[in-house]
Amino acid sequence: MEQLSINHISKRFGRQLVLDDVSFTLAPAKIYGLLGRNGAGKSTLLNIITNRIFPTSGTVKLGDLDTNNNDDALGKMFLMGEANLYPKRTSIRRTFDLANEAYGQFNYQTAARQLQEFGLDDQQHVNDLSTGQRTIAKLVLALNVDADYILMDEPVLGLDATHRDLFYKELLKSYQAKPRTFVLSPHLIEEVAQLVEHVVIIDQHKVIADDQVQHLLDLAHTVSGPAKLVDEYTAGLRVLASENLGNIKTAYLLDDLDDQRVIPDQVKLGHYDLQHLFIYLTSGGEHNND
Ligand SMILES: Nc1ncnc2c1ncn2[C@@H]1O[C@H](COP(=O)(O)OP(=O)(O)OP(=O)(O)O)[C@@H](O)[C@H]1O
């Protein structure tokens, strides 16, 4: 398996710049999160990676080969999209057959078990399903298609909590049985924090973070205590946001805490989670209530 590189991708729709010089790489056999606020350009990027739409500039390469109109490379990638592209009265089974024709080696056995666990029948028509059921049909398809890179746009759209839980478990099982790269572009960030190894965050059209989740969480510190002491302690550090409650201040940092720094008795250190890190990184200072 070769790595997939996204190189200096920019995309304009008319006068609107949606992606501005976006670059990152996706390594084989790893689970990624592609995160961004509504309208950040995630779907656009996933569509560009899989050659459904074209960038204004930049390239996507699998190994050394440009994927543009390259059937071999495109045959190694599968996009589970939002749009429902199937004709009316297409059964779930038919979508499996189409994937089998296009990619080969569709895993019918696991797909049948998963459909049963999710309470669907492969003779049901995709267009007759509820929003959540349609997502399930697409997920089961995506989990069983034979591709090295599986891109899932809004993977849990409309799924209830039980089905989301089942999907996360099935994704891990599928990954363990056959390691390949998954890119999830979800809005329920905290739910995928355990699953995803690496995140790419897009904001204001650009990549603002491209890092291992654990590394980011190690840097995500809270510092709270009397405002003056917190300000002194955090001077020179990267403070993403802060909150004041009376004289007590909490600062949310994304930085290493130098062991040499003396922590005043009244100041407490802690950690915060990936979802809050995402919020503070992408809210452009909206969360400072100083
Ligand atoms: N075909 C198109 N023509 C014009 N503008 C488009 C087109 N497709 C997307 N856009 C615009 O590009 C921007 C990014 O859209 P995109 O769907 O990629 O965002 P997203 O990050 O997937 O958002 P969400 O999380 O809300 O699904 C939006 O402002 C959208 O209106």
UniProtKB/TrEMBL annotation:
Pfam families linked to this entry: ABC_tran
Entries under InterPro entries matching the protein: AAA+_ATPase, ABC_transporter-like_ATP-bd, P-loop_NTPase
Protein name: ABC transporter ATP-binding protein
Domain of life per record: Bacteria
Annotated PROSITE patterns: ABC_TRANSPORTER_2
Xref: Gene3D superfamilies: P-loop containing nucleotide triphosphate hydrolases
Record keyword ATP-binding present: yes
Alphabetized UniProt keyword annotations: ATP-binding, Nucleotide-binding
Molecular function, one GO term: ATP binding
Domain ABC transporter: 4-229
